[in-house]
Amino acid sequence: MERRTRYDIYQDILETVRRRGATGITRISYGANLPVDRAKEAVEFLMERKLIDEEEYGGSMKYVITGKGGQFLNALRTVKKFLEDEGGEF
Hints:
Order of helices and strands: HHHEEH
């Protein structure tokens, strides 16, 4: 099995949050196939860059994708597709 890059992990997290809407860290870790502690680190990284936001829903913290996060996700998909079409690796 090939190792994922950080950008693959960020893409998986952003896609999970976009697909599920307001999502808790456990669901993000399942969706991105990461242990919860690594998912938390990646989510913090994405929050620092304003790609996802943390909001309170019913007494628990959930994460939602921002407009900037959606743009970043689309850019990642575009770059990945371009590199795959050219036979390169991402």
